[in-house]
Design goal:
alpha+beta, 60s Ribosomal Protein L30, Chain: A, 4 helices, globular
């Protein structure tokens, strides 16, 4: 009796935890300890949002805030919230309805970049504005 073994391989594309294939993202970067959004980044953000057709009917807007680890957990939770609030205020002032915006403040938890280098820490000081397609 002969036994045959069939191996079936399913291909599943792997996406980094930093970005999903169907999302659109723009990051706003901050100086150490700051939650100030400079005019250049604010203008770029609004121009980017204005360039997306049917933004409010096709996408959910998520603000995901991060910090570097300097200052400790409690400080960075506060700073993360202040950063997402600053970006949210820009969106609200641009007539984006509050119910279209969700916020997740990670603080120093869940860094995407290495906090062992100055460059990594500066890249972690950000709010990601992420547009997820609305699925009906």
């Amino acid at each position: 009796m002969r036994i045959s073994l069939v191996l079936i391989i399913f291909f599943h594309p792997v996406f980094s935890s930093a970005q999903h294939a169907d999302e659109i993202r723009k990051s706003i970067y901050f100086g150490g300890g700051s939650y100030y959004v400079d005019d250049t980044q604010a203008t770029e953000l609004l121009n980017w949002l204005d360039s997306i057709p049917n933004l409010l009917t096709k996408y959910e807007i998520h603000l995901i805030s991060h910090t570097d680890p300097i200052g400790g957990k409690a400080y960075n939770e506060w700073l993360s919230e202040m950063r997402s609030t600053a970006v949210k205020e820009i969106l609200l002032n641009h007539q984006i309805p509050e119910n279209k915006i969700s916020v997740k403040d990670w603080g120093l938890e869940n860094p995407v970049y290495s906090n062992t280098t100055r460059r990594g820490m500066s890249m972690n000081r950000r709010v990601d504005v992420i547009l997820y397609p609305i699925v009906y």
